[in-house]
Structure formats: structure tokens, C-alpha cells
């Protein structure tokens, strides 16, 4: 179905098209079972679509690709709006967006896989594993791995951005951590979001594994999770599906294409992907670090990722998400809402905003990628609405016990 919605005093036209990725994701008239729960997806979507339209209009979002997950399955996915306003290209679940900092937890998986192998401990000083000294790192109060993953390290560093099509080179990862990285304030002084810290995470993955960081991510995270359209550098087949990033021109109120960039801090989230790949990533986390029977991260380590690490810093993430119970786990944001445990993370760069939300107790997930600029609050509100609707339209089911098993009771 196609509709055109125009916000007053805006030139942005939102063409909402229900785009189904494949037969497996068709909007069903039947209910979909998941982990002892049945979700009436038809009712969920009927109530959710008006909220999607409202979020896109109020958030000045040209296009969005969205997925709902229950247990270990994508139960619904669709694209809305236009990924390229000039060409009027409809967004689909295969549209490629920059996923931003939703990538950070993937990099954390890579690092913690190495912890599971016994290569380091969370509270070890990072300096112990480096062949250089971080500027300002105090041996008496050193930066630890836990500090890196909770934004309490005090690390800063230049973003190092250059336009995608520029002839200028970005600083190489090795040079960045040696020359640009510095401790601006003592660890545990406060929580201050640090892209520089996650650039060091990328370097540590490379150092501890003996494998180039990009290669390690591909072989140990993306390939096992069947994330075939995710990468730091889009392949040609990804490139032809990329959504154009847009920002609002303050003078004209019009949507204007933003400059795509490369940057020294690419391990912090200058990464591209699709909502289908994001769904596989979310499924892995909803199932405690396991995907299609493959253990990607130990369950004990995953549980640490989604557990608030420091009570003294609880009460909201960066002032933009979460209630009084919220705080950083190991990279993942965490909170308790209406008695359920959640993990989440957003991502953004000029002209792109993304968000992932998972309900640990019901194993419900919401994923969204957009080419809207700084649309966080609209995505947070939409995610909560989706979660509430899946809870509202789900019922508990009891699986039948086969007769041969009944005899063994």
C-alpha cells in the first residue's frame, strides 16, 4: 500500500510503502509463536503504523527500515518513505544505512570473545597489553577494560573526519591510538561518552588476537551471524542500496543531502548495514549471545554486558534515554521498565539515526535504521510503543508434550 503524507510548511514528502523483504517476512494474518508466546502481528502493525508515520513527520525522517523480533525470529519488517528523495527511491528492508554506534556492542563482542579465551580480565589495566603509553594514563589509577566499555575511562581523541570523496587520508588506527589518544580526566570521575575509547577497543582486538581488526570483525562476528550486508566499507552491491543522509537546511526548511565521511574513529561506529542484518544481531543478544545454535559469546559474559556496572552512575544515559534504573552495562544501555529488563543503544552521524531495543524477559526486539538527522527521541518513543504493542497483543501458549515424552514423566 502506498500513501503520501506532507507535513505543513515542509517540502519533505513521505511515501509510506509496505515493503516486505521475502516470503519469510510476509505480514501474516496468522499469529506467530515465539518462546511460549504468540504475537498477533497483524494487530501490532495496525496500531504501530500510525506511530511510525507520526515519528517520521515530526522527526523529519525521509525514510526508515524497521524490524520486529520475537525470540529467534524476525516476525515483521518493512521500509517506509524514500531513501533518495531526488530519485524517489522507496526504502525497503534491504536498504543500507550507516548504523552508527549500534555497532559498538559488536566490537565489544569481539573484545570479550578474547576475554573468554583468557587473554585478559575486565579490571586489568589496558596499558599492560599495549606497546606504547597512553598520554595522561596514570599507573596508580590506570584505564581498565571495564572503563573503556562503560565510558568512564576519561579518554579523548580527535574525531579525525574527512569527506568520503576527499583525497585526504584519515589517520590510521595505529597512529590514532599512539598520537591522538589521551586521558583527559581520571577514570571513574564521571560518565562521558567516548568514541576514542572504542577506537582503542578496535586496536586491542587486533593486538590481542593477532588478526587485523576488520578481518576479525568479519570472521568472528558478521559471518557467524550471517550479516552479509554489513561492513566498514560498503561493497558495490551495498553501495547501490545506500540511503542518502539528509539534514534540514535551517534557512529553507528543506531536506538537504549531508556529506558522508570517513574517520579515524571508525571502530566507534562508522559502519554500514541493513535492518535484516541488524535483526540477526538483535536476535543474538535476545538469546544470550547465541545465534542459530552457535555460541558467539559465553552466556556469563553476555550477562555482564546487559548488567548495569556502576550504581553511582545510574539514572539515564547521556540525558537522552532511560529512567532512574538506567545505566551502562558493558557498552549496552540497560534499564528496567514496567518490570521488564531492557538493553538498548542508538547510533547517529550527520544524516543518519538508528536504534535497537531488546526486552530480555519476553525476548522481544525492535530495530530501526533511518536517514533522518538527530531523530533519537522520536525513535525511542516509537520503540517503546512497539514493545508495548507486542506485549499487549501476545498471549502465553503451552506447547503440547509428545506422547513418548509423556511416558518418561
Question: What does this molecule look like?
Answer:
This protein is an alpha+beta fold and 409 residues long. Helices cover 28% and strands 24% of the residues. It has an 8-stranded antiparallel sheet with strand order 7-6-5-22-21-20-19-18, with helices on both faces. The chain has a 3-stranded antiparallel sheet with strand order 3-4-23. A two-stranded antiparallel sheet has the order 1-2. The N terminus and C terminus are likely disordered.
Task: Name the descriptors.
11 helices; 28% helix; eight-stranded antiparallel β-sheet; disordered N terminus; 409 residues; globular; three-stranded antiparallel β-sheet; alpha+beta; Beta-lactamase; 23 strands
| Cα radius of gyration in angstroms | 21 Å
CATH top level assignment of the domain at 2-100 and 235-297 and 333-396: Alpha Beta
CATH topology of the domain at 2-100 and 235-297 and 333-396: Beta-lactamase
Low-confidence stretches: 1-35, 400-409
Mean pLDDT: 89
Give the name of the CATH architecture of the domain at 2-100 and 235-297 and 333-396: 3-Layer(aba) Sandwich
Number of strands: 23
Which secondary-structure class do the elements indicate? Answer: alpha+beta
CA(first)-CA(last) distance: 51 Å
Main sheet summary = 8 strands, antiparallel
- Strand proportion, as a percent range, falls in 15-25%
- Largest sheet, spatial ordering of strands: 7-6-5-22-21-20-19-18
- The H-level CATH homologous superfamily of the domain at 2-100 and 235-297 and 333-396, spelled out, is DD-peptidase/beta-lactamase superfamily
Fraction of residues in helices? 25-40%
Number of helices: 11
Overall 3D shape: globular
Amino acid at each position: 500500500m502506498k500513501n503520501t503524507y506532507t507535513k505543513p510548511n515542509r517540502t519533505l514528502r513521505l511515501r509510506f510503502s509496505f515493503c516486505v523483504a521475502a516470503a519469510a517476512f510476509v505480514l501474516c494474518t496468522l499469529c506467530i509463536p515465539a518462546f511460549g508466546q504468540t504475537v498477533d502481528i497483524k494487530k501490532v502493525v495496525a496500531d504501530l503504523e500510525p506511530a511510525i508515520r507520526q515519528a517520521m513527520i515530526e522527526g523529519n525522517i525521509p525514510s526508515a527500515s524497521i524490524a520486529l523480533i520475537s525470540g529467534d525470529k524476525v516476525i515483521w519488517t518493512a521500509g517506509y518513505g524514500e531513501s533518495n528523495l531526488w530519485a524517489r527511491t522507496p526504502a525497503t528492508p534491504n536498504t543500507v544505512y550507516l548504523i552508527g554506534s549500534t555497532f559498538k556492542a559488536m566490537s565489544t563482542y569481539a573484545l570479550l570473545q578474547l576475554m573468554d579465551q583468557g587473554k585478559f580480565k575486565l579490571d586489568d589495566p589496558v596499558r599492560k597489553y599495549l606497546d606504547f603509553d597512553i598520554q595522561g594514563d596514570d599507573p596508580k589509577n590506570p584505564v581498565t577494560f571495564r572503563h573503556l566499555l562503560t565510558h568512564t575511562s576519561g579518554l579523548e581523541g580527535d574525531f579525525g573526519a574527512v569527506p568520503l570523496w576527499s583525497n585526504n587520508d584519515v589517520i590510521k588506527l595505529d597512529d590514532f591510538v599512539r598520537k591522538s589518544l589521551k586521558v583527559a580526566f581520571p577514570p571513574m570521575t564521571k560518565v562521558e561518552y567516548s568514541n576514542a575509547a572504542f577506537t582503542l577497543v578496535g586496536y586491542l582486538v587486533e593486538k590481542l588476537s593477532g588478526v587485523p581488526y576488520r578481518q576479525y570483525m568479519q570472521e568472528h562476528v558478521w559471518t557467524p551471524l550471517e550479516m552479509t550486508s554489513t561492513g566498514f566499507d560498503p561493497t558495490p552491491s551495498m553501495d547501490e542500496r545506500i540511503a542518502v543522509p539528509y539534514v534540514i537546511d535551517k534557512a529553507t526548511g528543506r531536506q538537504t543531502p549531508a556529506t558522508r565521511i570517513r574517520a579515524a574513529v571508525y571502530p566507534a561506529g562508522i559502519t554500514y548495514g541493513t535492518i535484516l542484518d541488524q535483526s540477526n544481531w538483535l536476535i543474538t543478544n535476545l538469546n544470550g549471545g547465541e545465534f542459530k545454535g552457535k555460541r558467539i559469546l559465553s552466556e556469563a559474559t553476555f550477562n555482564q554486558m546487559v548488567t548495569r556496572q556502576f550504581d553511582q552512575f545510574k539514572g539515564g544515559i547521556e540525558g537522552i534515554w532511560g529512567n532512574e534504573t538506567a545505566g551502562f552495562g558493558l557498552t549496552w544501555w540497560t534499564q528496567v521498565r514496567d518490570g521488564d529488563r531492557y538493553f538498548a543503544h542508538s547510533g547517529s552521524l550527520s544524516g543518519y539515526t538508528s536504534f535497537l531495543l531488546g526486552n530480555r524477559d519476553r525476548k522481544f526486539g525492535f530495530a530501526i535504521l533511518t536517514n533522518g538527522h538527530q531523530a533519537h527521541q522520536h525513535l525511542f518513543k516509537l520503540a517503546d510503543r512497539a514493545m508495548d504493542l507486542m506485549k499487549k497483543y501476545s498471549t502465553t501458549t503451552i506447547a503440547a508434550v509428545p506422547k513418548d515424552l509423556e511416558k518418561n514423566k
